[in-house]
Amino acid sequence: MQVGRATDLDVLKGHVWNEDEEADGDKIPGLGRSVHGHREQVLGTAVYIIPSDRVFGAHQMRTDTDGHSGYWDADSGSLKNQARVVVGKYDEVTE
To answer: What is residue 79's predicted lDDT score, i.e. its pLDDT?
Structure first.
């Protein structure tokens, strides 16, 4: 995602969600940060913002899985949270 804030997306306010931090052992977000993250200059230093960063402004869902593809493990809290967001049951999402 190459925007710096959830408000930069063409999505109604409050409707941008992200798995909190990354799943244990998921190296992809960290490795891709400088390629896919939004670049900002902070005190002369390049900083890359991705959706799991709090400053991005997405609602954060709890992650309870491992690895990059674990977010979709059957019966995981991660997958259940995604389903809750998709059907609009935001009040049932665990953060």
So the answer is: 95
Residues 6 or more apart in contact with residue 25 via CB below 8 angstroms: 66, 67, 70
Instruction: Evaluate if residue 80 carries a pLDDT over 90.
Output: yes
Domain count, the chain: 1
Beta carbons of 69 and 23 less than 8 angstroms apart? no
* 48 assigned to some structural domain: yes
The verdict on residue 34 lying in a domain is yes
Task: Give the confidence band of 56 by pLDDT, cuts at 50, 70, 90.
Answer: very high
Can you tell me the mean pLDDT for 45-59? 90
